[in-house]
Amino acid sequence: MMVKSFRMKALIAGAAVAAAVSAGAVSDVPAAKVLQPTAAYAAETVFSQNNGASGFLTGRYDVQAMAPAMFNWSRESRFAGNTDGTLKWQNDIRTTPQNGAGAVIDGDGTVYLHSRDGEMKAFNPDGSVKWVTGNLGKTYTQSPVLGTNGVIYLASYDKKIYFIDKETGEILTTVPLSGGPSSETVIGSDGTLYFSTLDNYVHAIKPTSKSTWTERWKLKTNGVVSSVPVLAKNGTVYVGTYNYVFYAINSGTGQVKWSRTTSNAFKGYPVIDKDGNIYAGNQDGQLYAYTSTGSLKWTFPLNGFSSSSPAIDHNGNIYIGSGSGELFSISKNGDMNWSFYTDGPVRTAPLIDATGTVYFGSDDMKVYAADANGNELWSYQTDSNVVSSPQLAEDGTLYIGSYTKLMAFGK
User: Which one-letter DSSP state was computed for residue 39?
Assistant: First the structure.
């Protein structure tokens, strides 16, 4: 009963802060009170997109979920991992993740994952199957996203976005798309969904109920949008394309605010710091740091292509993988803190827990955990490339996927 009461108070407090930030009543919540991960927050189930150093627009995600989205947040969890690399369970599920796509976790511990066989599977925390919904489109897999209304939003390669009831797996409605999706959906402060398609468009649609929606706008870019859209606190949508262009778009109108051209494609998704600076990896082997007005602050050499999405911790350090097999920790000034070597490209987005431990996977078929100084804590050998990005549950269980399995690590 005490735990229930504490969690309810945390939810109410978190919701109040989120509402105040969204309304503009709070411009900078003190990190020590709300955003910075501490041991006290390990008991909370309130999801926050921002830590003390990140600057994402608060969207209408299910804040009672442990991890309602894979991207469009700092990827610094409020939870501490509870694993020494011991495998709790694994389940055969084939995936071909787009940009490190993977699982999301509900408030009761249910884990949702899209398979390349066209199925959405809901797993109980013990690994048993809760429900399966089929015929959702095959080929590449995207991360599902949990909204505030009990709906899962899934972009699928059969040119549809599915609205799915998270409790039953029932398909509530579908949104027809002009092309297959090149990203998962992200959710804005008013519930608008932003996503991109392979016919070079960025879209904004607004759900009006659990089964209805309206189109707000769509923007034609110069090429396929290869990164997941992210939303900054100032209402800007950032995306990168295979045709070497990085765009800043007004989320309300769909008009381009500015764009910058590089020498290769952007993949993964950018992260945003509290000052509005944007960090994005590129296939040319550089991490780019732009200001909110499009000025280039600095670049950092990654020693190989980058299809990994970065994470940002509460001190402003950026973590990103490279085709060289390295995971880098880079200061907000563009200096290297450390690098960690693996024997294959690191394509997954790293995840930072409340103790500073960093979790990630590699094409060398291993899952890794490194401490805040870049020292290996443990690794686990799998049977195929680790390509789905990790997520943490409240009890410290780590979920991460390979091409063939969803794995749960914990005690």
Answer: G
- The boundaries of the domain holding residue 96 are 87-267+390-409
Asked if residue 41 lies in contact with residue 78, where contact means CB atoms within 8 angstroms, the answer is: yes
Cα dihedral across residues 301, 307, 312, 313: positive or negative = negative
User: In this structure, how many other beta carbons lie within 10 angstroms of the beta carbon of residue 115?
Assistant: 20
Helix, strand, coil distribution of the chain in percent, nearest 5: 10, 40, 50
> Is the residue at 224 inside a domain?
yes
- Is the model's pTM score more than 0.90? no
Q: Please give the average pLDDT of every successive group of 10 residues along the chain, which has 411 residues.
A: 35 40 35 35 65 94 95 96 93 79 94 91 96 86 92 94 97 94 93 95 96 96 89 96 94 97 89 96 94 97 91 97 96 98 95 97 97 97 93 96 93 87
The pair of structure tokens assigned to 9 is: 């108070």
Apex CA 347: angle with CA 287 and CA 54, to 5°? Answer: 50
Number of structural domains in the chain: 1
Q: Both tokens of residue 98?
A: 């787009």
Say how far apart CA 361 and CA 406 lie, in whole Å. 13
Domain contains 111? yes
Q: Is residue 316 domain-resident? A: no
- DSSP-derived secondary structure for 203-221: EEEEE-SSS-EEEEEEEE-
Chain centroid, CA 47 distance in Å:
12
Specify which residues 133 forms β-bridges with: 120
